[in-house]
Amino acid sequence: MATTIEDDETPFFSSSSQPMGMFTGDISGTGNQSNKNELSTLNEPVLDTIKRDLGAVLRKFGYAVIPRESATLLQQWDLWGPLILVTILAILLQSSSTKVSSGVEFAQVFTLMLMGSIAVTVNSQLLGGKISFFQSVCVLGYCLLPLLLAAIINNILLYISSKSTIPILHIIRFLIVMAAFGWAMYASTRFLGQTQQPSRRLLVLYPIFLFYFLIAWLIILHAHPK
Amino acid sequence: MQENLQRRTTINNNNNNNNNPQATSLESGMPSVGSIVWTAGRARAQQAINFYANIDYLRPYFDVEPKEILRRLLHALTPRWPSPEENIKSELYGPSMIVFTLAAILIYQMKLASHSVEDGTLIGTSFLISFGYWIGSSFAISSVSFVCNTHLNLIQILCLNGYALFSHCLVLFLATFIHTGHDHLLFYGLWCIVGGLAAIRMMLVVMARTINPRYRVLLGLFVSAIHMFFLLYLHFAYHELAETVSHAFTNEATVSADLPVIARAYQLVDAVTQSQEIADDSHNNFNMSSLSTEFLSPIISSTCN
After folding, report:
1. Contact across the interface for A34 and B288, Cβ inside 8 Å
2. What is the biggest distance separating any 2 CA atoms in chain B, rounded to whole angstroms?
3. Which of B124, B299, B305 sits opposite A111 (nearest CB)?
4. Does the distance separating the beta carbons of B117 and A126 come in below 8 Å?
5. What is the ipTM of this complex?
6. Is the full-model pTM beyond 0.80?
7. Is B286 a member of any domain?
């Protein structure tokens, strides 16, 4: 007991024998496992980092395309996928040939994504769920993949229809985009619907439905730039 | 990545807690740059915490079941004199979702009409209009009802006003998707019937809670006037294409030909609806039923820009 009191009362710059050991140490860490992991990723080659992160992004795309029971999207969220998808979608949805409004149209998709994520997050938190803003951006962004594929097919079909006049193409376009909308809705339901009690699930899903529906209609209404 | 972020924030918090509030430099008594930065960051963090506390304050108003929401949506269009013991348990989920839906419908209408906005984006404008009207008109009604001594608090008015916007969503949705030969008549009919029902319902609830008969009438007229005029404003400000299309159907000359897309839409819809008699090259092969014509005419008009 007496020794511990002595230790507590040891002043900072004393010249007693013990304190010198306190100021020396290993810079590589205090033996904490996560500390070691954190520093080890700084030393690894850049190619390894890129491969690992790219693999994670591609794996999440896989989860978005084939929805499975997995908590990966929510727990290990990242924003690369949403960034890539929203940028490509914004480029595809530009229809104006003038420079002034094309910039505004490009920003509209980003604004829509931002507003949609804020709405989904706030709504989910107010209904008792535990989801953060970045998690909802991650899930909404990754589940945009089917709609992006539909937008690409839409542009191809528009190009074909500008060369020839086949009326059925418009109906095909509509059906493809609606199918992609249903797919995106189902995928995000599997991820975001899990964070709620069953009776409230419909309440959480409505803003997501609105968000994807709006994007689907923007794709359908898109005209090929001349 | 998330673990790193969390570790960094906890380390920062620990560092901040250990610092002195206002560390001054040794030479003069002026606060150092670091301490200014830290104080500003602390103030901002407290603002963020207050924001989250506000979310908790709103949480009880989001405690509803889907069936209850559907019931309230239906009752928003059925005017009846509320009984005295009836207590409006207000909730904010239904109104918020209705306002989001209204914003989505406005975005769709503006896209159809190629409405251009100089400052800001289309989406920002529609959100501003929808949320601005909901909150602004609720505050206005709340102020007037305070003067008229009505037994309604702000949250109840927000709830009532939000559910009344369901009529706006319905009317604009139907007016956008159904294009017939009598577009104006359809809109005015819907405006009177659906808008009127919701306005009367809101008016009766507000009137039932006001004691003074003169104030009762005044408040009732004020509430229904705001409601009906907003629907008119939404239609005429954001629904140019439908009006031009209706002119095309009745073969009247259009007044505004500023936007080229509207002039061409006039030609195209004219061609499509005058049953394959006009030799327009790109639309000769369209042989659709009338329902799909109405449904796809916005697509056709925007496709051939």
Report:
1. no
2. 91
3. B124
4. no
5. 0.76
6. no
7. no
